Structure formats: C-alpha cells, structure tokens
Amino acid sequence: MYHWIEDKDFLNRMKSLCSDIVNQLVQAINSDGLMEVKQHLVGSGAKNLITQNANEPIDLDYNLEIIDSGDTNINDGRTIKNYVKEVFDSVLIKAGWNPCQDSTSALTTDQRFFKKGNKTPFSIDICIIRVDRNGSWYRLIHQKTGIVQLDQYYWNEAPQSKGLTDRVEWLKDNDCWLEVRDAYLEKKNMYLTRNDRNHHSFNIYIEAVNEIYGKYNGGFGYVQSIF
C-alpha cells in the first residue's frame, strides 16, 4: 500500500537532485526560444504529495507545462514530444543518466539510487501538459500502434480540471491541504487494490483536489476520471 515517505533526509536529497535535472530541462527549452515551459512537481510546494508503495521504487511525477508553443503548432504533439525528449535526453546524458523512455503519457528516466544512506531506487516521470484559456488542463498522450509512423498524439482533457489552480489556492489558503493529502493517498491505494494502472498521479491529484473542494464549496465533488 502507498504511504508517505518518512525519511526526510532522503526525501530532500531525492527532490533536490530530481528537481535540478528537471529545472535544467526547463532552462534548456526556454533558452532555445522555440517554446516556453515551466515545471511543477505534482502537489509541489511546502506540502507535496510524494508517496511510496511498500518498499518499491519511487516515481517523482512532474508536469511540464507549455506556456507558449512559439511557432510550433500546439496540436502537433509528435513534434512537441520528440523535441522535449531530445532536450531531456541531452540533459540526462550530461548528468550521467541514461536517455529517457517515451511512454504513453510521460517521459520516464531509468532508476537511480544514492550510494550512501537510503538506497531506495527512484526515477522521474514527466507529463507534458497545457492549460487552455478557460483553465482546463490537458495532458499530451502518445498512443503507440507498433508502427512509429502510425502513432497518434493528442491532448487529453482531464475531467473537472477547469479552474484547478484557483481551487488549489483556495484549499491552501483555507488550511484544507492536509485533507487533500489524505484524499490523494486514499485514492492511490484504492486504485492499487483494484489493480487499476490507468490512473496517473496527474488525474488522482485532480480528483483529490475536487473532492475536498466540493466538501466546502458545492459543485465540485468527487468525479472519477476515465483515464
């Protein structure tokens, strides 16, 4: 079952290393001038949401948000995903890591571990997202077919994501974030017991925010996502 990581020294070292890698990716992309991006560790901030399933390796989930796609068509998911992967691989190789893997919804690094102290393996998952003018969140999906030329790329809207940023700020400002953490952990374990591997942390996070926000503000109760 999932639990919060208790080893704070390990947690801080892991976050520091991985966030440095992801920040290098952001800086490299932004310095190219082809597009503008920023990164978010899921649940980032003073009260983050990093969990571990028993003694299994840890995935740190980041959202790479496209702020401005520049001259690149925002609907050209193949170009965007391939470009981000190319830059990410360059950053990883310079840091002594292996190139990342391109999965359906994320770019995933290989597992690393510290030679001293806690030796739990960990890796980085990066989802490419965008937020439209109405405040709805979309995740870039790479639907593989087995034939690279026929693969499909599309933006998948997260259910009930419109206005998510405002709801998160309201919950934090009104001291409700511990309830969000509890709901997030409960949902991760619920999907685990169902052997449901289709719910990424991106969607579980939105579900938890909406459930607790709906508890205090009508209209945004729990809605189970369909991906």
Question: How would you concisely characterize the structure shown here?
Answer:
This protein is 38% helix and 22% strand. It has 227 residues and is an alpha+beta fold.
Q: Care to describe what's here?
A:
- It is a single chain.
- The protein has 227 residues and is α+β, with helices and mostly antiparallel strands.
- The protein folds into 2 domains: 2-157, Beta Polymerase, domain 2 (2-Layer Sandwich); 160-227, no CATH class.
- It contains 5 helices and 9 strands, in the order E-H-E-E-E-H-E-E-E-E-E-H-H-H.
- The strands form 2 sheets. Strands 2, 4, 5, 6, 7, 8 and 9 form a 7-stranded mixed sheet that branches. It has a two-stranded antiparallel sheet with strand order 1-3.
- Strand 7 (122-131) and strand 8 form a beta hairpin.
| Helix-strand topology string | EHEEEHEEEEEHHH
- Mean pLDDT, rounded to whole units? 91
Number of domains: 2
Alpha carbon gap, first and last residue: 21 Å
Per the CATH scheme, the topology name of the largest domain is: Beta Polymerase, domain 2
- Shape field: globular
Number of helices: 5
CATH architecture grouping of the largest domain:
2-Layer Sandwich
Radius of gyration: 17 Å
CATH class of the largest domain: Alpha Beta
